[in-house]
Amino acid sequence: MALIVQKYGGTSVGDTERMKNVARRCLAAQKAGHDVVVVVSAMSGETNRLLKLVAQITDRPDEREQDVVVATGEQVSIGLVAMAIQAQGGKAVSFLGHQVRIVTDSTFSKARIKSIDAEPIRAALKQGKIVVVAGFQGVDETGSVTTLGRGGSDTTGVALAAALKADACEIYTDVDGVYTTDPNVCPAAKKLDRITYEEMLELASLGAKVLQIRSVEFAMKYKVPLWVKSSFTEDPGTLVCEEDASMEDVLVRGVAYDRNEAKITVVGVPDQPGMAAKLFGALDAKHIVVDLIVQNPSRDGRTDVTFTVAKSDFAKAHEVVKQAAQEVGATGIEVDDAIAKVSIVGVGMRNHSGVAAKMFQTLSQEGINIQLISTSEIKTSCVIHTKYTELAVRALHTAFGLDAPPAVTANPTVSEVDALKGQKA
Ligand code: ADP
Ligand code: ASP
Ligand code: MG
């Protein structure tokens, strides 16, 4: 007998019929002899709807109050899923984040989990119940509701699996595993049987929203065997796991893109010690996470500093930087939110040269201008104009030999997802 944590995303609980399907799957796992903990997201589109309501009230929401609103989507889902299990003859109980003490820090809208009290869950499992936990939400030390960032139910699932020392964590979504790139953008994408934690971490942090980055960090740290599967098929899915020798044979495992960033350039920064510290210190003081940073060589004692931030932090970052740029005596600021970051990822890149050059050639052959470049041991990223995102992803996918043979691309889950696209969160 094993303890399994299953997480179902927004599309998987998108309507009551789908919730009944989730209930059937949970009961089947229990019938197979397992203890089952289920984490559910808000119904698809619900979190966006709640955020729109907030935006109708104010364009500068109080972050604590915004979390109070957006956390409600998951409350509806857990109650309905628990009742769907009961209606099929099973025993189930639902818990909100604070009821299982998912304690986080107080960084509203992107809080980090600090601890979980597994006892109420263990007690309910002992009584033969399926435990249904709200994803995405926690509670800080002062009792305020917090949320874990978009896609945060993945992290709830993996963190619970780690806290309960579960035998497996299964993330059920609307595609049947992790693909070489987003199958909804590139029809030739191939499903991977296995991917290393490290590669998945890079893909997630570079925009592959199939798993939230924090969930992969948790899985890697606590060695949680992590599966990504479809809630609509019986496909075994993809296992995210430790690297073994054979996995290094592949040069590029996948291609990711991210359209959720914006670019800010501080022009004419005096080329003196301490300037970058002042600019980025001001952003850090407001908890703004900076991604790529590029500083040009100085000319006439001045330099330009360009960096990217999440679009959700763009307005705040712009304001902070305006002030900081004045303080350091910079001559101006330029902003651009029509950008996308495309990236290639693979552990095999560690031991091979020429990968970045091939990426640049591929983009150049498509007439795509590269605005910024960033590399690390196992990835290369280029910032380009957002209008070229799909073209760049497909061209890179082909150039690095990732395209599936035509017969394999007929994927029922993907076409089902296409039909659902309008409903997605
Ligand atoms: P859920 O609501 O179940 O959490 P998400 O929409 O957050 O689902 O994540 C699943 C989506 O992730 C897929 O529909 C797909 O468009 C996208 N995606 C991006 N990159 C990948 C990838 N490499 N493999 C699989 N899916 C990906
Ligand atoms: N409902 C939240 C979101 O849409 C969390 C999640 O689905 O993982 O981002
Ligand atoms: Mg998700």
Automatic annotation (TrEMBL):
It is an enzyme of class 2 (transferase). Its EC number is 2.7.2.4. InterPro entries: AceGlu_kinase-like_sf, ACT-like_dom_sf, ACT_Aspartokinase, ACT_dom, AKii-LysC-BS, Asp/Glu/Uridylate_kinase, Asp_kin_monofn, Asp_kinase. Residues 264-347 form the ACT domain. PANTHER family: ASPARTATE KINASE (PTHR21499), ASPARTOKINASE (PTHR21499:SF3). The lineage of its organism: Bacteria, Pseudomonadati, Myxococcota, Myxococcia, Myxococcales. It holds the Pfam family AA_kinase. Signal peptide: none annotated. This is Aspartokinase. It catalyses: L-aspartate + ATP = 4-phospho-L-aspartate + ADP. Pathway: Amino-acid biosynthesis; L-lysine biosynthesis via DAP pathway; (S)-tetrahydrodipicolinate from L-aspartate: step 1/4; Amino-acid biosynthesis; L-methionine biosynthesis via de novo pathway; L-homoserine from L-aspartate: step 1/3; Amino-acid biosynthesis; L-threonine biosynthesis; L-threonine from L-aspartate: step 1/5. The keyword Disulfide bond does not apply. Belongs to the aspartokinase family. Coiled coil: none annotated. Keywords: Amino-acid biosynthesis, ATP-binding, Kinase, Lysine biosynthesis, Nucleotide-binding, Transferase.
